[in-house]
Write a sequence for this structure.
């Protein structure tokens, strides 16, 4: 396949997003356009994945300018893998939104497409300034998606969300400016070689790192995430969880691979941050009292697991981290979609006002239970395998306390999942007095739609169950990605030639 | 040197404003912080020590690429400022005030 297909990954969703704005009063056309576009992008990403696994990294100079002037987009196994998993979850999310009628706002589908094109750009860019632009495209779409309902709670959450991310973006820009001032380039390959000898560039890189840590929501820069994501429409939270913080984690892996892991103290810093993030996130989750509140705190906790390999940086740890990342994106998406189904059917996800769903909607219970077990890491799910590999890699690198933290945090994860299950699915149905307010939304959903909505998280949950014992194929792919990260020479040569 | 002072003053003013409670002040604070970042980007091209990068300025010209960066950054921060102000407007409708701590 021609390397210029990489530009299609960005051009297609951006163009489709613009066209979808014009089609804002034709819901059916808008939906078809979104699904066809995301489906095409998914197929392209899969083709790219096969291509880069066989033939090494690809790159393209946007606009055909000569190297040095052109913006370089580069794809290696990790980028292609992130593109594949990200686009499939976005597609799943937009299909679910149609099923649960959460796409009734005319700008919903255009914004999803624009959000995706920003995320895709972040996954393929090999240029620090372009990375800033990618984050901005993605964030601007997410600002609007978050505040789409325009209620008082959304505005409060929106200002916090915009404020935090804008501050991080401004810091990011300052970092890029300092790096450019010191080494005269923003190409990742050139920066990676130049930064080791230049103190000014080092200062810029440090500021950049802080900004990315805030975007990936590592403790202590995590406070914005649990307070804002819960206010978004439920299906939007599911899509955010699959894309936004994961883009931050991807950038940490990418920068880690090309330059950061060779710097003094970076590994130790990441290991401490990862462990603290796991613990703080899970403690917040245990204290939650509604489904999405608990799940968003878990996002913070799980980012700790995803970043732990950056503190170990052996092949085993990276393989474990990437395997965990791929299965986690799907599993967390499924949990949020199950929560979105509960919100749609019962009108609330407050554990105090739910109960007995296992009796009235047993399949929804299973659809939540399977990904919940995968998140907690119960055998034989994919989450168990991911955590097992991760903890083993930490122990092999003699990071005993970090590995032990990961194990203990898993127990608390299970505890909070049991809390949701007890509150929403076991026990007695709530009395009529509690539910009268939500009756209208309950009546509005037809039987077929309900089944279709439940089928989405249920399918992902079953996939997570199968992926545990049958992980061989995926482990080979992430193995290739890990090799490319450990020895980035081929990638750097491709994007910096 | 003058660029450094400008960046410092803008960043200080911006930081003060985004620590305020009203959305409009926060938006203005981000405008100032955005200007600080833009000024720093322009300065990173070496404008302070070299000639302005016009066509035909010769080998002494400063690097023009940061100006393209700055332009992009200005457009982005303009868009986000507009969005923040729209949020403030909506907040006045819903909460009756742009102060998030007050209101219902």
């Amino acid at each position: 396949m021609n390397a210029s297909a990489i530009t299609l990954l960005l051009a297609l969703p951006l163009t489709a997003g613009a066209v979808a704005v014009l089609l804002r009063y034709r819901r059916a056309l808008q939906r078809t356009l979104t699904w066809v576009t995301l489906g095409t992008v998914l197929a392209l990403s899969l083709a790219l994945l096969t291509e880069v696994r066989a033939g090494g990294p690809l790159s393209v100079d946007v606009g055909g300018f000569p190297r040095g002037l052109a913006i370089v987009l580069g794809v290696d196994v990790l980028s292609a893998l992130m593109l594949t998993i990200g686009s499939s979850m976005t597609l799943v999310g937009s299909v679910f939104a149609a099923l649960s009628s959460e796409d009734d706002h005319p700008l919903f589908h255009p914004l999803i497409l624009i959000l995706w094109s920003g995320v895709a750009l972040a996954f393929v860019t090999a240029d620090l300034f372009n990375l800033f632009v990618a984050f901005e495209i993605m964030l601007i779409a997410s600002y609007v998606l978050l505040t789409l309902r325009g209620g008082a709670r959304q505005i409060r959450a929106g200002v916090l969300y915009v404020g935090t991310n804008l501050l991080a973006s401004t810091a990011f820009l300052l970092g890029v400016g300092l790096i450019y001032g010191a080494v005269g380039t923003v190409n990742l390959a050139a920066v990676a070689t130049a930064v080791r000898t230049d103190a000014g560039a080092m200062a810029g890189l440090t500021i950049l790192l802080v900004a990315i840590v805030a975007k990936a929501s590592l403790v202590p820069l995590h406070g914005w995430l649990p307070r804002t994501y819960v206010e978004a429409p439920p299906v939007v939270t599911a899509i955010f969880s699959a894309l936004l913080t994961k883009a931050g984690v991807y950038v940490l892996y990418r920068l880690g691979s090309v330059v950061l892991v060779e710097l003094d103290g970076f590994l130790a810093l990441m290991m401490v941050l990862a462990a603290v993030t796991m613990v703080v996130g899970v403690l917040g989750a245990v204290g939650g009292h509604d489904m999405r509140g608990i799940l968003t705190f878990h996002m913070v906790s799980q980012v700790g697991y995803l970043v732990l390999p950056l503190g170990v940086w052996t092949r085993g740890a990276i393989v474990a981290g990437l395997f965990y990342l791929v299965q986690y994106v799907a599993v967390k998406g499924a949990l949020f979609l199950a929560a979105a189904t509960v919100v749609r059917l019962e009108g609330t996800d407050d554990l105090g006002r739910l109960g007995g769903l296992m009796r009235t909607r047993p399949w929804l219970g299973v659809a939540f239970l399977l990904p919940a077990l995968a998140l907690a890491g119960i055998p034989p799910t994919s989450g168990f395998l991911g955590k097992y590999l991760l903890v083993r890699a930490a122990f092999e690198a003699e990071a005993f306390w970090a590995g032990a933290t990961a194990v203990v945090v898993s127990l608390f994860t299970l505890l909070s999942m049991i809390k949701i299950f007890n509150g929403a699915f076991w026990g007695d149905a709530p009395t009529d007095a509690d539910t009268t307010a939500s009756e209208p939304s309950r009546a509005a959903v037809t039987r077929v739609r309900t089944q279709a909505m439940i089928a989405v998280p249920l399918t992902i949950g079953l996939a997570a169950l199968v992926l545990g014992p049958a992980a061989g194929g995926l482990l080979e792919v992430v193995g290739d990605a890990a090799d490319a990260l450990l020895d980035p020479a081929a990638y750097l040569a491709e994007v910096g030639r | 040197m003058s660029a450094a002072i400008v960046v410092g003053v803008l960043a200080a003013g911006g930081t003060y404003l985004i620590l305020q409670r009203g959305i409009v002040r926060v938006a203005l604070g981000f405008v100032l912080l955005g200007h600080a970042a833009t000024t720093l980007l322009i300065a990173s091209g070496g404008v302070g020590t070299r000639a302005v990068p016009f066509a035909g300025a010769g080998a002494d010209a400063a690097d023009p690429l940061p100006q393209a960066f700055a332009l992009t950054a200005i457009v982005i921060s303009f868009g986000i400022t507009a969005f923040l102000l729209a949020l403030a407007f909506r907040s006045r409708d819903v909460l009756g005030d742009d102060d998030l701590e007050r209101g219902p």
About this structure: The two ends of chain A are 20 Å apart (CA to CA). DSSP finds 22 helices and two strands in chain A.
